[in-house]
Structures are given as structure tokens and as C-alpha cells.
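Q: My labmate handed me this sequence with no annotations at all. I'd like to see what the chain might look like in three dimensions before we decide whether it's worth expressing. Could you predict it?
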Amino acid sequence: MRPMTTFRIQEFAKLAGVTVRALHHYDRLKLLSPAHRSDRGYRLYCREDLGRLEQILVLRYLGLSLREIAALLDTPASRNAEPLRVTFARQQAALHQRRDGLDRILRALEHAQQRAQNPAEPEWLLYQTILKEIQMQEATEWTEKYYSPKAAEALRERRAALTPELQAEIGARWQSLFADIQNALDRQTPPDSAEGRALVARWMRLADEFTNGDPEINKGYQRMIEDKSHWPDDEMAARIRASMPKPECQAFFNQALQACLRHG
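A: Here is what I predict for the chain of 264 residues:
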């Protein structure tokens, strides 16, 4: 029997076209841990590890978070086919959305070129037209990967229907709710009190306005929140973080919700 071919981490990184740092990161996350060690404790990778790494890189390229990749790869093959198809469909929808966004930017550029032929057209207005399309694209493309194709489409329709004034009003209502929860916390109000249950009811009404009662939208939102450590450093992510409740407010809501469920 031929001995198994193994690779030290530097060799494996070069073979796979990744950095040693990335391999260390995957090992810490238990996403790709070499099954072998040398007598001196060095990591030793084999061909099977290369196959798993290629899966990781493909799924990462498609936009999945490392948490999602781990869940997919660690699911037994007999139970993995359907989740994988759903994941691919979601990523395909996100890529279509990205392509649509790029098409919008191209059309904006073409429109700007036509308007630039008019000497009377202010230059700043041309840049504003292009910038508006770019910002719209950047604000939506990374969030939609967390939603199913149907939920992403529903969200796009809802965004189109929301005027800036209505968005500001909804944001103010959420912030008012968080302030009232903080006030309840400051007064040491029990989460299972009548006031706590009333705050839960307000929270659920506001959440229902966002999801429109669609459980798929809620699932996508939860996936996005759970993956917040991988959010990009952009204006959209900053706005979402700023709109989220403080941990203590979230904990109060969770306890109050459990009390509501217990009492029916």
C-alpha cells in the first residue's frame, strides 16, 4: 500500500492558492481541521482536505457565511441535498439581483453620458445620478443573500413602496419602543408583568409590519442577525446595527415573550 501523501501547511496553502492565515482561521473554526499531525505537532493536510477546502472556497465565493458553510458541510450527505438546493437557489437569486443592480448602474452611466453632451447640464447632477444608483445597489446586494428568492422579492417590493418619510416614521416607532423597554428595565419592571406583555405586543406589531406575516422573511432576517460578525463595513450595515436593540432590551423582550407564551 502506498503511503498517504501529506502536506505541511505552507505546502498545502500554496497548492490550494490560499494563505496560511486562512487555513489557521478555518482550523480555529473547526471548518477545516487536518486529521494528521507530524511527530513534532505540525499540521499535515491530505488530498481529502483539499476537496473540503475547495467546497469551502466555492461556497464562500457564492456569498455564504462561514457559519452557513459549516452547517452545510457537516450535515450528513443523506440529509444535505435539499438544504444545498435551497442554498444554491438563494445565492442564485442574490447574484441575479446583483446583476440587475449592475445593469441599473450601466444604464445610469449611459444616461449620464447622454446628458453630458448638453453643455448646460450641471456636472454635479451627473455624478448625483450615478451615485444614487451605486448607493441603491450597495445597500441591498449583501443583505439579500440571507433570504429565500421569494422572500427577497417580497422585500424588494416592500422597499419600493416605502417612502423616506414612512421609513423615518417606522424607525422612530422602533426607537420609541426600545426607549420604553429601557425605561421598564430602569424601573426593574418584571418581564412577565402586564407592562412587559404590552411591550411584547408592540414589538410583534412592528415586526409584523416588516415581515408582513411572512415566516420566510423572518427566517432570513434572523440569519442575517446571527451572521452580523461578517457584515461589511458600509453605511447599510451601520444603519442596521444602529437600529438594533441593546442586548439588555433584547433579553427583556425574550423573557417577556416567554411569559406571554406560558400564559397563552
